[in-house]
Amino acid sequence: MKKRISSGSPYEAVIGYSRAVVAGDWCFVSGCTGAESDGRFLPDIARQAENALNVIRQALADAGFDLSDVVRVQYTVTNRGLVDDLAPALAAAFGEIRPAATMVFADLIHPEMLVEIEVTALRG
User: How many structural domains are present in the chain?
Assistant: First the structure.
């Protein structure tokens, strides 16, 4: 049985995805970015990451999970030169959890997007 979680983002309907999907003890959270609810983007990668992590926390909570349940994370970053500014936000969120992680460098949908964070969580 699958449960779909929506954050209300307009992208969910336009592109056709759920913020998160729960399947048994697993929760898969789609990539989250630095877009605010009004569609504007926060001005720097650290604040964008914090915003993305807050959206992830809320999606996990809505699904009955917690950030400490995260076992896998993928970061998509637009520029290698931004990693030093990004690292403190990631360490604050995942420093004690230490999930398996991958960082990819690529363009994102909007030029203002600097980072996208996607997680997989396992309950128990």
Answer: 1
From 43, 110, 98, 103, select the one nearest 70 (Cα to Cα): 98
DSSP-derived 3-state class of residue 39 = coil
pLDDT value, residue 58: 96
The closest of 76, 72, 78 to 112, measured between CA atoms, is: 78
Q: What is the CATH number of the domain that holds 79?
A: 3.30.1330.40
- How far separated are the first and last CA of the chain, in Å rounded? 18
Q: Model-level pTM?
A: 0.94
Question: Strand 2-5 and strand 20-23: pairing?
Answer: antiparallel
In whole angstroms, give the CA distance from residue 12 to residue 79. Answer: 26
How does strand 70-77 pair with strand 100-105?
Answer: parallel
